[in-house]
Design a protein that fits this description.
The complex is a heterodimer of chains A (114) and B (105).
Chain A lengths: L4 E3 L2 E4 L5 E6 L6 E8 L3 E9 L2 E4 L8 E7 L2 E6 L8 E8 L8 E2 L3 E5 L1
Parallel strand pairs in A: 2-11
Antiparallel strand pairs in A: 1-3, 3-8, 4-5, 4-9, 5-6, 7-8, 9-10, 9-11
Chain B lengths: L3 E3 L4 E4 L4 E7 L6 E7 L6 E7 L2 E5 L2 E6 L4 E6 L8 E7 L2 E2 L3 E6 L1
Parallel strand pairs in B: 2-11
Antiparallel strand pairs in B: 1-3, 3-8, 4-5, 4-9, 6-7, 7-8, 9-10, 9-11
The chains are: A mainly beta (114), B mainly beta (105).
């Protein structure tokens, strides 16, 4: 299995631009998670889906952030408009179930907003 | 208060030392506990997965859960330079801050 695949690996953009991060979970996994990692705040859960349905988006910082999962093999995290404080590493993870399950992480997207 | 609290370190030890990493958690409903290891510029990977109180051993690694004090620990015996990484404790989908460990040859 190829594991969780994220793209792009690196993204550099200017403040105000729209950013779209992509994720392909492991085939057969029913849950997908988006995390953001910074030195100051560690690994924060932004949102998770179970069977393509958003279950908990309480970690999404503000309305500029949105996430979708149109099918079992694809998810996007969009930031519009982007701000310098959004600079972080964004990870996608998948698991067999939503709770108490082992998470498998992608390699992350390093986002820099100038 | 974060649901999972972890001292971010950093922690530096000589090769061969025993390493102790610790976390506390606040929600008594937590039943499953995990330790993840994250190398630089990589995503976290699952290292240990435990349920209920007690110890679980896997090679040089031992995970310990004390539900009475809401305390979870990871011990690394005979630490190696290749163990240098950030170690994150987790419950369910919530993570501690991670402890950065360096094992010096």
């Amino acid at each position: 299995d190829a594991g969780v695949i994220q793209s792009p690996r690196h993204e550099v953009t200017e403040m105000g631009q729209e950013v779209t991060l992509r994720c392909k979970p492991i085939s057969g996994h029913n849950s997908l998670f988006w995390y953001r990692q910074t030195m100051m705040r560690g690994l924060e859960l932004l949102i998770y889906f179970n069977n393509n349905v958003p279950i908990d988006d309480s970690g999404m910082p503000e309305d500029r952030f949105s996430a979708k999962m149109p099918n079992a093999s694809f998810s996007t995290l969009k930031i519009q408009p982007s701000e310098p404080r959004d600079s972080a590493v964004y990870f996608c993870a998948s698991s067999l179930a939503a709770t108490n399950e082992k998470l498998f992480f992608g390699s992350g997207t390093q986002l820099s907003v100038l | 208060q974060k649901e999972v609290e972890q001292d971010p370190g950093p922690l530096s030890v000589p090769e061969g030392a025993i390493v102790s990493l610790n976390c506390t958690y606040s929600n008594s409903a937590f039943q499953y506990f995990m330790w993840y290891r994250q190398y630089s510029r990589k995503g976290p990977e699952l290292l240990m997965y435990t349920y209920s109180s007690g110890n679980k051993e896997d090679g040089r690694f031992t995970a310990q859960v004390d539900k009475s004090s809401k305390y979870i620990s990871l011990f690394i015996r005979d630490s190696q330079p290749s163990d240098s990484a950030t170690y994150l404790c987790a419950n369910d989908m919530r993570f501690g801050a991670g402890t950065r460990l360096t094992v010096k040859p």
